[in-house]
Amino acid sequence: MQTLSTRRSRRTLRAGGAGAALLLALSACASSSDTNATAKSGSSAAAPANPSGTVTVFAAASLEEGFTKLGERFEQRHPGTKVTFSFGGSDSLAASITGGAPADVFASASPKTMKVVTDAGGTSGTPATFVRNQLEIATLPGNPDNISSLKDLTQSGLKVVLCDESVPCGAAARKALDAGKLKLTPVSYEQDVKSALTKVELKEADAAVVYKTDVRAAGDKVEGVDFPESADAVNDYPIALLEDAPNAEAAQAFIDLVKSADGQKVLTEAGFLEP
Amino acid sequence: MRKSAATLEGGRTRTGPRPRTVPLALLLPALLGLAFLLLPLVALLIRTPWSTLPGQLTSPGVWQALRLSLVCATMATALSLVIGVPLAWLLARTDFPGRGLVRALVTLPLVLPPVVGGVALLLALGRNGVVGQWLDAWFGITLPFTTAGVVIAETFVAMPFLVISVEGTLRAADPRYEEAATTLGASRFTAFRRVTLPLIAPGIAAGSVLAWARALGEFGATITFAGNFPGRTQTMPLAVYLALQNDPAAAIALSLVLLTVSIAVLAALKDRWITPS
Lengths: 275, 277
Prior knowledge:
The structure holds two protein chains of two kinds.
Chain A: H1 2-30, E1 53-60, H2 64-77, E2 81-88, H3 90-98, E3 105-107, H4 111-119, E4 123-133, E5 135-139, E6 160-163, H5 168-179, E7 188-190, H6 193-201, E8 207-211, H7 212-217, E9 223-225, E10 235-242, H8 248-259, H9 261-269
Parallel strand pairs in A: 1-2, 1-3, 6-7, 6-8
Antiparallel strand pairs in A: 3-10, 4-10, 5-8, 5-9
Helix pairs in contact in A: 2-9, 3-4
Chain B: H1 2-15, H2 24-47, H3 53-57, H4 60-93, H5 99-106, H6 108-111, H7 114-125, H8 132-139, H9 147-172, H10 176-183, H11 188-199, H12 201-216, H13 220-225, H14 236-246, H15 248-274
Helix pairs in contact in B: 4-9, 4-12, 9-12, 10-11, 12-15, 14-15
């Protein structure tokens, strides 16, 4: 099953990669005179930092809002570049990368998933933590059940959804519950953080334990409640340049932007914590 | 679908022996098609962690999920029979304005992404749904996150298979038998029960098997509408998907169980009830 899905995604990605390569060739011919490149040259010390062409970024779904903004900023700053994103579950992205997907940058929602790629020799250099994400309780707008702590979720009659423990948000929720020595029986273990949040947005569940960034992204459809135990379950997000990056130079410039004060500002506005 | 295949098989036996030579232009793509369908299954077998398989399969979670899958798929098939066969009869035997549109709508779940079906079910039958809020207010019934919710999600996705199969059989069956029964004094419902139903039994059986198999493999609508809780709403496909996140070996083992059950049932039922003669 995994073989099939990996193969399938590899095939699609190869088609995408061919397109990307074509774009890259075209933009190289156009040879934009991009002089005000602000990227601090990282690993590419020999070549002058003059990023061009397409950067393909594989990033955790929770980064979608922040990274989309940063992608636009990057393209503005470096005319002639194009940032394409593939947002998805970190695990499946990691599987695509180890399966040979032509990506330049991988930003994962957990060090464990990044390690899968690192162990396979897929990264160039050491991954660096660039943001952290904290859990929050998402409740219905107006918090009709008066939820003010993680313990409040354990009261009977309340429909709570958690992420499944096989996905990072579920593992983090488990850590937080253990830290508070709480026993919580949810009505469902959802397959990812977005679907847990959706159950609250549709008012099918009364509360969900999700990331702060997801609550922020949902706007006024849910209300966020902070809880102290979340400090014990903070998720680190590592980012890395990939070993087979088709456009390593521009990729490094993008990573530099993400780690810059500017990039951090965009991401903290989306609800992330600085590393 | 299955019905037309059955008719073809029946027709072939009547028209005599098969042509002895198969043109290469047909044989090659046919074999390619066969290989394409079988290759993923072969890959699953090759990658199965046979040494750790017994351990994977004896975990109680596996049997819990399998039992729930079998029970829910069977209940979904039963529900489909109760409401789907009359619906098929309505489509095949009566004439009303907009029938073509109704038939198209009935088959919509066949092409609709199951996740979309799940969302639609939530909006209709959820606690806050169009109908669901009344179910909750009047009877205290909420369907999401319950086993009943799994059955409903599976029925939504699987019933169209039964309906189109039965409708096709009804169209092929001669309505004159029913008419004869009614002229002999039987009510329309008696004629349906005593004449039509036995006449279309093979079509109903074929449709049931298709619906059952589809329900057994249902994933998207189930996880969206009924959620995922071990023992209550976690069916095998859900268990497989979640195992794939961090334990691919377990996912392969679970897939193998589901595959074995599906093949066994399809093969057994097909030989007994579907193929004519």
